[in-house]
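User: Quick sanity check before I run a bigger batch. Here is a single chain. Can you write out its predicted 3D structure?
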Amino acid sequence: MAETKPTATAKAATSVQAKKRSNAISWIAPLICLIAGYLIWRFGAGADSGFTAPDPNGGFWPSHQGPKGAFNKMYDGGIIVPVLIACFLIVLTFVIERFLTISKAAGTGNNDEFIRKVQYHLANKNVDAALAECDKQKGSVGNVMKAGLRKYKEMITDTELDTEQKVLSIQKEVEEATSLELPMLEKNLVFLSTIASVATLLGLLGTVMGMIRSFSKLGDEGGGDAARELSKGISEALYNTALGIGTSAVAIIMYNVFTTKIDGITYGIDESGFTLTQSFASLYK
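Assistant: Done. Predicted structure follows.
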């Protein structure tokens, strides 16, 4: 009877490890910004000292009359104003957060120069020097390249696989490293894209609500005084539109800036993977 030999089915180990990143800012920041938006509207724009006839009863939404300045007129824009202020603060928060994260992911120096240095070291079969360049780069491209280089170094001494299998193993390692880096780059951009659309609609909603109140007063009172109140009411209601459009514009601009930077990093990651596979295929046939 023919002798059967046990076959090894162990899966090749990967050097890529998932990074645990907390994203508490995604729910803490909007909540804090909403509270801050109300406080700015109620106790900043709606401060008693900013009106000629403040409401002595105070409360959640006092009926102040006679705003003294433009900032105080924002208070008369209605309850949508603090929501719009909160939206603007949320945009600022995530612009700063994404700027810091993407700047760190971009690493130090120029990605094209970094890849050229790695190519030079690989052409001289100096993998350790290439790994040292990854440690200097300190960005997402360097992280992906480093993971691929570790597998690259392992495949050089592997005697069981053929060249094509080794190249596929390096490519798989690069893909796994990439799948861990890209979500970190794109995280929280949804806040900017959402507010870019919603802020304008909230501004229009606040304007419509303000104009409804103004025309209601015109119908109730009538006469020249009512016409003056109507013009003041429309002016105050348009603060909602201004806040909504301004917030939306900032969100759209910064969203496009960040996506452009992410595209540049993604291109560098793709180029690094191509560099590793092509280098190995040509040097270790």
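Confidence is low (pLDDT under 50) at residues 1-13.

User: Great, the batch can go ahead then.
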